[in-house]
Write a sequence for this structure.
């Protein structure tokens, strides 16, 4: 019996471990142990006022607080039948651009690239390629600067409220970021070129890709949920199709490796389903890569992130130039009892929220489905596919390979913890 | 204070994660302009979010993010303390228990049943508590998340063997210094600024809203006066108590003030 054990996964957000038991080239046991402690957000949201929700849910994840804020406010606005103004919507998208830029730059260069380049960290990478890491940090900083200009700070910004923003951000400080944004877009294009030169392991998986799709914009905050299997689901019906399938499939995972009905959310899904909605420079660079879509290699989600990085810089430039605050920064809310759901695309995938509120606007029920919870069954299924290769490797190489696969998903274990589970799968011996 | 022995080798720094959102560790990674200098000044010996390379302890400085919420964490913090010469609590989870300390005011198993299909799989403590409840801490940095400039100041101070220069005054004074019109006086918004530890730069009042207390209690705050002043203006049930029971809820001053607010008889419609 050979085992691959990674007691603590490095360079992921949150804490998890990995255990793979192999016998005669066969996986007999796989566990993705999520020992990140539960924090019970959906429990303590009950009894809070709706306007407290975006401040609280931001704390689910320090890397993607904007995603939590946006899914929360969208759900609560749906519950109150509130439409936000086009200017508010545009500013929300700009804020989301900032989060995509910081999160993708972090993942591409600091979390995943060290694996592809055989380094333990980006700090070691900086010793051999200082310019690459310096540019990466500069790119990441620009995303954080956008968040700071709009939300006061980049982690847990304070300006988001149900209905819009507490205050319009200062146009001068925002527009002052344009030269850096322009630089960032060129750096992002170079990132795409560089991403094509990296040595990705061979692994092609016939995923069911699932992402928000909108015919007129790169779907991150409004639209329907599209699946590469041809389904289209409205936000309101999301739990009917995905949550139940999700639970069912994680039970049905026994004995299945692929085609078990698991699905993939995140940059690969978005790029494959929504590449026609990318901004022109991102479209062009994607075309120039001559990549065949759909991309099915999980490691190549790095390329998808790089292309998205170009898109979000490009969109951020356009939105920053067009920014002209006028009218109220937030809609007036008329409280009433009801229920609403909302979703948005966190950098690592679809994030769904549903709330019930009473006539005073107090939360009666909260449900949050984070992206990594949706991807966990898929990660485990991928590890099954990878297993025959792992068994032929030395322990250290196998460990790094398995870890790399998990990291390529950009799993946010802090977010997904409420999906906490410990699974031991016995496939039987052959 | 002498924190770091003057030797020719770089001080070894370890960064640990307990129950948290990762945001305070990310504040270190968000030191984009300083990160590479930092990495060349100190030896980042243990920091899983950044590197899979782990150097064995003991460490000169340990930085802990997150609160203690599981039996395993309660054991682990003792080990962490024993391998670090100088231990820093980083952020409001580590200094006060964080947002997850809201379980301390309810039954944790009720929450567990609300959220999880199989609560029997979980191992958790009834309470979320700060690091200092389990082991002696040498320095506490407040903030949800911490201000990254404060992190730089602390590391610089440690390297120079001097006391770190922390903002001495509450958010209220940061607001005055920035020339922000008082949101409580001018607009009647509930604001914890007078009793909350400074360090954020008065972000919320600058965004046209009241302070919600994510930097924890200031040492000189008059909580009784503030609660008495805020409660009649509650815009929804228990607004004042909710504000106090959020990100720094387990901090003793906030606990006492929230209890007082909840015990105070409600006035009739005051709008």
């Amino acid at each position: 019996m050979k085992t691959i054990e990674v007691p603590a996964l490095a360079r992921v957000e949150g804490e998890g471990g990995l255990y793979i038991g192999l016998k005669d080239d066969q996986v007999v046991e796989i566990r993705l142990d999520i020992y990140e402690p539960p924090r019970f957000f959906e429990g303590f949201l009950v009894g809070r006022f709706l306007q407290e929700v975006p401040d609280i849910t931001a704390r689910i994840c320090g890397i993607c607080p904007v995603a939590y804020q946006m899914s929360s406010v969208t759900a609560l606005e749906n519950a109150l039948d509130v439409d936000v103004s086009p200017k508010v919507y545009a500013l929300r998208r700009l804020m989301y651009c900032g989060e995509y830029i910081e999160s993708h730059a972090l993942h591409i260069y600091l979390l995943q690239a060290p694996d592809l380049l055989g380094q333990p960290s980006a700090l070691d990478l900086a010793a051999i390629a200082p310019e690459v890491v310096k540019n990466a940090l500069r790119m990441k900083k620009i995303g954080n600067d956008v968040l700071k200009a709009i939300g006061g700070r980049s982690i847990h910004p304070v300006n988001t409220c149900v209905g819009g923003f507490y205050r319009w951000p200062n146009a001068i400080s925002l527009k002052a970021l344009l030269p850096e944004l322009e630089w960032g877009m060129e750096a992002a294009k170079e990132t795409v070129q560089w991403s094509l030169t990296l040595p990705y392991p061979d692994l092609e998986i016939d995923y069911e890709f699932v992402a928000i799709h909108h015919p007129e914009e790169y779907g991150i905050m409004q639209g329907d949920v599209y699946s590469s299997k041809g389904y289209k689901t409205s936000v309101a019906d999301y739990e009917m199709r995905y949550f139940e399938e999700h639970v069912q499939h994680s039970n049905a995972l026994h004995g299945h490796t692929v085609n078990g009905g698991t699905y993939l959310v995140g940059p690969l899904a978005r790029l494959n389903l929504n590449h026609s909605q990318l901004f022109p420079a991102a479209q062009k660079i994607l075309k120039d890569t001559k990549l065949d879509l759909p991309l099915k290699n999980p490691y190549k989600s790095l390329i998808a992130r790089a292309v998205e990085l170009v898109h979000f810089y490009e969109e951020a430039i356009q939105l920053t130039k067009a920014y002209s605050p006028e009218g109220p920064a937030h809609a007036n809310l008329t409280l009433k009892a009801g229920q609403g759901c909302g979703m948005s695309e966190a950098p690592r995938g679809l994030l769904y929220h549903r709330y019930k509120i009473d006539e005073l606007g107090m939360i009666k029920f909260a449900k949050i489905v984070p992206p990594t919870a949706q991807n966990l069954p898929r990660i485990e299924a991928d590890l099954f596919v990878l297993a025959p290769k792992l068994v032929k490797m030395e322990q250290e190489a196998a460990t790094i390979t398995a870890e790399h696969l998990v990291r390529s998903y950009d799993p946010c274990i802090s977010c997904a913890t409420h999906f906490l589970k410990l699974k031991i799968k016995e496939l039987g011996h052959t | 204070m002498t924190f770091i022995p003057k030797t020719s080798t770089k001080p070894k720094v370890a960064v640990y994660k307990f129950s948290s959102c990762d945001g305070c560790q990310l504040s270190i990674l968000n030191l984009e302009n300083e990160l590479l200098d930092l990495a060349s000044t100190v030896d980042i010996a243990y920091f899983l979010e950044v590197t899979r390379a782990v150097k064995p302890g003991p460490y000169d400085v340990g930085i802990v993010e997150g609160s203690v919420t599981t039996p395993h964490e309660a054991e682990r913090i003792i080990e962490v303390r024993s391998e670090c010469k100088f231990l820093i609590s980083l952020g409001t989870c580590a200094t006060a228990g964080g947002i997850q300390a809201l379980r301390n005011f309810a039954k944790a198993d009720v929450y567990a049943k609300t959220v999880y299909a199989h609560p029997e799989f979980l191992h958790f403590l009834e309470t979320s508590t700060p690091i200092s409840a389990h082991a002696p801490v040498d320095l506490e940095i407040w903030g949800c998340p911490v201000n990254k400039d404060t992190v730089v100041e602390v590391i610089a101070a440690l390297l120079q063997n001097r006391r770190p220069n922390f903002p001495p005054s509450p958010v209220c004074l940061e607001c005055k210094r920035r020339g922000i019109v008082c949101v409580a006086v001018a607009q009647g918004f509930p604001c914890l600024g007078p009793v909350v530890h400074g360090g954020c730069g008065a972000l919320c009042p600058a965004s046209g809203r009241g302070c919600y207390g994510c930097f924890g209690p200031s040492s000189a705050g008059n909580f009784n006066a503030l609660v008495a002043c805020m409660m009649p203006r509650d815009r929804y049930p228990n607004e004042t108590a909710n504000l106090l029971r959020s990100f720094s809820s387990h901090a003793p001053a906030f606990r006492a003030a929230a209890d007082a607010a909840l015990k105070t008889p409600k006035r009739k419609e005051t709008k």
Observations:
- Chain A is about 45% helix and 15% strand.
- The radius of gyration of chain A is 21 Å.
- Residues 244-259, 418-430 of chain A have pLDDT under 50 and may be disordered.
